[in-house]
Hints:
The complex is a heterodimer of chains A (243) and B (500). Chain A has 243 residues and is of the alpha/beta class.
Amino acid sequence: MDKTKQEIIDQLRQDLMAWEGFRPPSPGERQEFGLGPIENAFPNQTFPTGVLHEFISSRPEFTAAIGGFIAGIMATLLQNGGVCVWVSYTRRIYPPSLKRFGVNPDRIIFIDVTREKDVLWVTEEALKCSGIAAVICETRLLNFMDSRRLQLAIEQSQVTGFILRKDTKQANTTACTARWTVKPLRSKLRPGIPGVGHPRWQVELLKVKNGHPGTWTMEWRNRSFLHILPQTTIITADNQRYA
Amino acid sequence: MPRRFVSIWFRYLLTDREGIRQKSLREMPVAFTEPDHGRMLVTAMNVHAEQHGVKHGMTAADARVIAPGIQLFDTKPGRNIKLLKGLAEWCLRYTPLVMVDPPDGLLLDVTGCTHLKGSEQEYLKDIVARLKALGYTIRPGMADTIGCAWAVARCAETGLIVPPGGQRNALMPLPPVCLRLAPDLLLKLNQLGFYQVGSFIHLPKSVLKRRFGGNMILRLYQALGQEAEFLLPLKEPVPYTERLACLEPIRTRDAIENAVHTLIDQLCKRLYGEGLGIRSAVLTYCRIDGKSGQLTIGTNHPSQRTEHIFKLFELQLDQVAPGLGIELFILDAPKTEPASDKQSHLWNGKPAADSEQVAELLDNIAARVGTGKINRYLPDEHHWPERAAAPTADLSKTPESEWNEDCIRPVQLLKPPEPIEAMALTPDYAPRQFVYRNERHIIVNADGPERISHEWWEEDGGYRDYYVAEDEEGMRYWLFGTPADLPGQTRRWFIHGYFP
Lengths: 243, 500
């Protein structure tokens, strides 16, 4: 009896997700983002595409880290061809740097609007266009109604949207599927080697629909994400000897 | 098909115009004068003044003596051109190709138009009669070439319509002035006794050229039809245009949208049949009070989809002020291009940057925020970080070189770099700490320097020593120091970007 109850609840959860516009990926469509344990935090153990991801940033250093993280994900999205639209009103992104994250900068169309309110209009138009692989929107303000509009546009077109909220101290309620923050962490080279190592971030999944929020340490190395387990950062006696 | 041209000579252009304005002036001698070396010289006169013996270049005082009661007016520079332009627009009813021929004529390309009035004679008669009704005295000429029509209109007594191929016979009895030559050349011909074109038309080309220069040969052969001469029309005819006249003047937005949609649909169907797509379109609306307005759209990609073109216009429809009502819509497509085959994109997954879907999206965005706001970057062979990416507007352009991956560049770049207060203990090493926006950052790890010099062929300046610096919290910055080894300069530090 218990088991059937559990099954019913599972079935209902699946239905709810479908009604919320969240489709389980069809077998051939699944893309590998190489995010490792982060993917397990999402329903179906898959990084969801065709939804809105919200990234919160309170400092320009975080914005840079988020830019790198998104570019790493975008590299996978752009594998099947297509273009990406980057909407912003105060753009500081430096196109040539994205090549390091596996994205050809000439595949990105930058739209630099002068008024902040045009950002959301352009984003919505771009999200409605199914010929686009991903839309990145740099904005400061995003209220619930706006996010709902964007979500509805996405449900038609199945484009992946990234909302990069700059200079945001407090996050309000939005209709986004996942909310992230990415902060840079001290990079680690092999002990005894001076200099700056590979980009290393603390990726925090603050909120995720039907998933499990969590915190991970990730590194971008050799054109892929690498999960850094906590124990590797502990200095062992062996490491200390070489230090 | 042999071309046919009409030249119209407005013999008394300025005085006729004055006569239209004041009817009383039609019956009395009228002349226009212009100051020249402290005298007033006659530059234009009407037929009555001519009968009294008033001539070009006569002083105003002499004209007053020989023609009592003559009315003199000051010539306004450029007035004849203005009048001719107005008349040229009026002549568009006869042919779409009309050219102003200063100082006192019009040229019409009437190829294939004369049958509309029955015959060439009827056609010319109609022009003369209508212009006479307006108050202009004109002399027309029709021939296969512009030069011959011009000559016949100005100099021939009879035979104003030169039959096809009859230029040589028509020109023979005319004086050399009919060839549009410079005054000094005409004087020379006159002194040599060449009073008619027929007296030198037989001479060999080389002889004429040696004696009178290349220009004379050109003019003669243009009149004969052996050299090409082109007519620059007043208005370029738009090949793709659709008109919609409304039975009742319309004012409501629904009705306007409906009308625009119908027009676009007609035009798109026509273009589809010819395999073309719209690159730019102009919608003109004429209101019943005589005012008109225009809406212009442009597309990134030749489009023949009604819905897309309509959407671009729809974004601008707020600007239409119908006033008392709109009676006529005209849709022109000044720029069209062959449209690509839609099915070519069917099989390759997500479309490329120049696909129709993306192009339509960018059209919509450009219509709202402006075209200059859409940027795409291609790699450029420059070391200087600000120049490493070249903006391009062309969506189909592919990079000519690879993006440089050897140097690590920050994801966020500050434009322009901002000054920081930095403390470096040893020269040629990264600073130990720096203060940016009242925040102190202690640097624990650093890479560098990477020296990037100004590209002297582009712009003068020194070099920058770039460092990748990581502070205690793990934030990574791109810092640079200006040259310290030049005389009279101390090293200043700047922050130029953030690394992920």
